[in-house]
């Protein structure tokens, strides 16, 4: 008799889950796959779905008290773009999705090694008088991590408000004992999406805060590819990485501050007050146009992916991409291919050997079709290259935390800065050419001669691309 109750219950189970999955409007293949999992593996499937199934993480949002000031300051930025329709259209993509307009920075500095980037960050922290906000995916308890912790302790004891936001997975090596002196000094520490069983309800365990930023007194901001780890510095590690970071001064820092406010509200449940101290007026007129773009799984807008897509589609001369993880979605794959086919010089620089064998295999599965479209691929040979940059023509460049993969586009919380103008573009292009001098180009013949087992491994890894 009891078995007759199982069938109606199973039908209800499938119907409810089918309704939930279908209403999420996933890609058709993904929808069908989840329906199969939940139908034939109901209990195990539910557990898997709770970990990697939800598309979004729900976050309470603070009132956008910064927005008015961003709009007022952004009017001047947009005015500078009115003479260039391509640039104006690129800027409008993020604006249309609720992001800030391009703002004027008093200065933009680029760093291509950890030693110079950390020196600049330490100098800015030492000079801070009101607050220091730091958000990092990875913060290691190594030499550079301990030095920065001790400096923040010193600043907190001197009366500077110190807030440190750490990702619950990337910075998991920071134990309580190591953090205790920081907290004892008066500094505040919060964890973003820590992995706990009770926190998995309604969110994915792999939704990570991949951002790296430091904001000092609301006037100086840093972001880019570098975490707080010895591995980024040639002075501290024999196997150091090649990376790119940047420093902004002026009103262009405000969007970085706004992102920190929202992330802090989510993680620490504290509303940071918007004042002249946290968002100070620029000290002087800015001359560099910078648009900060954020994205994450708290929305379905995929702002960074759309900005990359628009930048690629608007390129007329060159597209020089550096990324440690190259796992493009279908739209980005098509954008790169069509850009190359219409005569744009499209180059992709990746590490010869990354820190994930699975990602390396998946990345190389995309090479043949893009090589067919005249995209050129280069492997950086001296060491792991962790920079995330894009050089577009002669007057647009992108620097940030986002890799060119589905994880950065849709699953992680990321930041990029779109730099309008020739200055940053020229510096990044010059570094790109230096990196190419230490790289080898990959040809089609090399891929055709690849053993079947290796090609099978790449094709198999590609099946996991949506999660990589």
Largest sheet strand order: 4-3-2-5-6-7-1-8-16-14-13-9-11-12-17
Structural class, from secondary structure content?
Answer: alpha/beta
β-sheet strand percentage: 15-25%
Distance between the termini: 47 Å
Low-pLDDT windows of residues: none
- Tell me the overall shape: globular
Quick one: how many beta strands?
Answer: 17
Give the biggest sheet: 15 strands, mixed
Helix residue percentage: 40-55%
What value does the average pLDDT take? 85
Q: What is the helix tally?
A: 17
Rg from Cα: 23 Å
Q: Key features?
A:
alpha/beta; two-stranded parallel ribbon; globular; 20% strand; 15-stranded mixed β-sheet; 468 residues
Describe this structure in words.
Helices cover 43% and strands 20% of the residues. It is of the alpha/beta class and 468 residues long. The strands form 2 sheets. It has a 15-stranded mixed β-sheet with strand order 4-3-2-5-6-7-1-8-16-14-13-9-11-12-17, with helices on both faces. α2 (28-40) packs across α3 (42-52) and α5 packs antiparallel against α10. It is globular, with a radius of gyration of 23 Å. The mean pLDDT is 85.
What's this, in brief?
With 468 residues, the chain is of the alpha/beta class.
Topology (elements, then pairings):
Blueprint: H1 2-23, H2 28-40, H3 42-52, H4 67-81, H5 85-96, E1 103-111, H6 114-127, E2 131-136, H7 143-157, E3 161-167, H8 176-184, E4 188-192, E5 212-216, E6 220-224, E7 245-250, H9 254-268, E8 288-295, H10 303-314, E9 318-322, E10 326-327, H11 330-341, E11 345-351, H12 357-364, H13 367-372, E12 376-380, E13 389-392, E14 396-400, E15 404-405, H14 406-411, E16 414-420, H15 422-437, E17 439-442, H16 444-448, H17 452-462
Parallel strand pairs: 2-3, 3-4, 9-11, 10-15, 11-12
Antiparallel strand pairs: 1-7, 1-8, 2-5, 5-6, 6-7, 8-16, 9-13, 12-17, 13-14, 14-16
Helix pairs in contact: 1-2, 2-3, 5-10, 6-7, 7-8, 10-11, 12-17
